[in-house]
Amino acid sequence: YWLPWLVGMPAETTRAICSIIFGGVFERLPNLKVCFAHGGGSFPITIGRIERGFHVRPDLVAVDNDVNPRNYCGKFWIDSLVHDEKALNFCMDLLGEDR
């Protein structure tokens, strides 16, 4: 069913974004410029779930970085290859039109 590309890649991109955030990379390297493919994977649509985990399970999520993950929205870039106009608008609303 081509699931590694349809579902796996967006999940892997989200995992990469979260690893950078949770690992405190942006805190240690505030001038780091990073761009993630395909609209940031599923990160934009799951930021609510990610933020919820940060608040209710800081023992698991905020181990190396105590900054709310939502605060990083707009601190990195994503490309616009999302194949859906509403998804693109959502990404621009969340992260900023210039990101």
- Describe the largest sheet: 2 strands, parallel
Work out the oligomeric state of the chains in this entry. Answer: single chain
Radius of gyration: 13 Å
Strand order of the largest sheet: 1-2
How far is the N terminus from the C terminus? 32 Å
Task: Indicate the proportion of strand residues.
Answer: under 5%
Q: What percent of the residues sit in helical stretches (DSSP H or I)? A: 40-55%
Structure report:
By secondary structure, the chain is mainly alpha-helical. Helix content is 54%, strand content 4%. The protein is built from five helices and two strands, in the order ααβααβα. It has helices spanning 3-22, 25-28, 43-56, 58-61, 85-95, and strands at 35-36, 77-78. Strands 1-2 form a two-stranded parallel ribbon. It is globular. The model has no long low-confidence stretch (mean pLDDT 96).
